[in-house]
Amino acid sequence: MRLVTLTIHDAPAVGRRGFICGRARICAALSFVIALAVTASACRESAGTELPPPPAFDMSPLTPGVRAQLRTLSAEFKANPADARANLNLAKALVAYESYIAAEGYLRRATILDSKDHQSAYLLGWVLAAQGDRESAVADFDRALKLKPGSLPANLARADALRRLGRNPEAEKSFRRILKDHPAQPHAQFGLGNVLLSTGSYGEAIAVLQDLCSANPRFGAAHYTLAEAHRKAGDRERAASQLAAYKASPTREPALDDEIIQGIKDLNRSHQGLYNRSLRVASSGDWKQAAQLLEEAVSEDPNFLVGHVNLVTCYAHLGDVKKTDEHYRRALALSPDSAELQNTRGLVDKVAGRNAEARKYFLRAIETDPNHYTSYENLGQISFEAGDLASALRSYEKSAAIAPHSSRSWIMLGTIHLKQKRQEQARDAFLQVLRLGPDAEPAIQSVMSAYKAADEGLGWNAFARAAIDRAKQLGLTTIQLQLAMAIR
Fold it and tell me: What share of the chain has pLDDT > 90, as a percent?
């Protein structure tokens, strides 16, 4: 079986292990102190050509990198306060740190100074919508669309604001127009399905949302809305099936290519913003850039534990033993009882072929946290590769009991049972990968490979038929098709 190699920790996973970087709002983490020189209402009531005074904000609580960034942008603004671009650039940085009230003031100035700039108008609408002022947001989205009618992000944002305001006829018309120009656009389908559900058009809502969920099986909110449509239509069985699909990936949704908002996210120089960018580049295998971003993050906040832990991973991939040890020691000083850190260090040794050392770190992680299931999985891997199937079985049984959502444990349990010619136990273990819902597709491929390696064609067919029945119960249409096509 393939060794699960070193991975960089994302915030939710790390949060479950006691780290300090859950999904906190950036503005709260940075302790922005905003002192407006003009209220938002005064801005909104200003005459068309009247330039509102610039909002003031206190940079003293900020970390050095963020403070330097805003100080530079503030200096550029003060040098030419009537320059639309200087106002916009400062506003974008404030949006990056979720300081929406101050950003709104500078965006209003920017739109007055350059009434033909689509970006300022769109971003002002976006900021107003983020603050809950959707009526005003619609007006600014309208202005943005007059300047750039084909902007998909602006059209979607406007339609969504209309939907949330309960202006269903306008919202429905907008979503249908988007879908005419962008067939099967998932966010437009989702919006239209919600509007149809709100207006009692359950049959059409179900048809739209079913197409959406089939094409985007990990779109959690779409499954939830489809479940609600089935419930209101009186089909409790299908409602339960879609609710199960929602629970498998409740927060996942398709990405939207919004260059303006993505560019603003990349402006965030806080330790959290740098960390978020490191996750993105690490997922593409660029460990060098990920390490650079994380080094900046721990420079901003030397106590940023997950930054040091992920630097251990980055430098292990880059083969830099000195830096790996440095950040391991720094993380250990911050959290001597971190099971995740011990597990990560064990993986470093495991990948380097130092299995005896790796075992010590995995056992140390379990001693610190008896429910640290990934350390049990890693111990199981070492035993499996050494041919000690009994010990491997015990480790994977323990990890599966702690974390039944982990497909790795079930795949390895099934593989061990296959090696020991226990077909029924193997099938039962492999079936548990369907707990992952739509995310089970890669795991199904691993199960198929396990049966092929064991030369168990008949066993695979029996598993596939049982899995099709289970997938049908869970509403996993794509996986049903995948399995049906793979029966030999």
Answer: 68
Q: Is the pLDDT of residue 470 over 50?
A: yes
The pLDDT tens digits for 311-354 are 999 998 899 989 999 999 999 999 998 999 999 999 999 988 99
Cα of first residue to Cα of last residue in the chain, in angstroms, is: 22
Is position 339 within any domain? Answer: no
Among 126, 131, 62, which residue's Cα sits nearest to residue 101? Answer: 131
Query: Containing domain of residue 227, as a range?
Result: 184-267
- Whose CA is closest to 310, among 97, 323, 22, 351? 323
Residue 375: inside a domain: no
d(CA 451, CA 467): 14
Nearest to 49 by CA among 125, 103, 113: 113
Q: Confirm whether 384 is domain-assigned.
A: no
Domain-located, residue 292: no
CA triplet 50, 51, 53: central angle to 5 degrees? Answer: 130
Of 243, 267, 291, which one is at a domain's C-terminal end? 267
Residue 320 sits at φ, ψ, to 5 deg, of -95, 90
Residues 445, 451, 455, CA angle at the centre, nearest 5°?
Answer: 140
Cα separation values, 487 from 441, 446, 459, 462, Å: 15, 15, 10, 9
Which residue has tokens 């801005």? 43
By the 10 Å C-beta count (0-12 exposed, 13-18 middle, 19+ buried), 20 is classed as middle
Domain count, the chain: 2
**Residue 32 — φ and ψ, nearest 5°?**
-60, 135
Question: Of 267, 296, 316, which marks where a domain is finished?
Answer: 267
For residue 85, the one-letter residue type is R
By C-alpha distance, which of 431, 469, 478, 476 is closest to 451? 431
Residue 207 maps to which CATH number? 1.25.40.10
The domain that contains 415 carries what CATH number? 1.25.40
**pTM, to two decimals:** 0.74
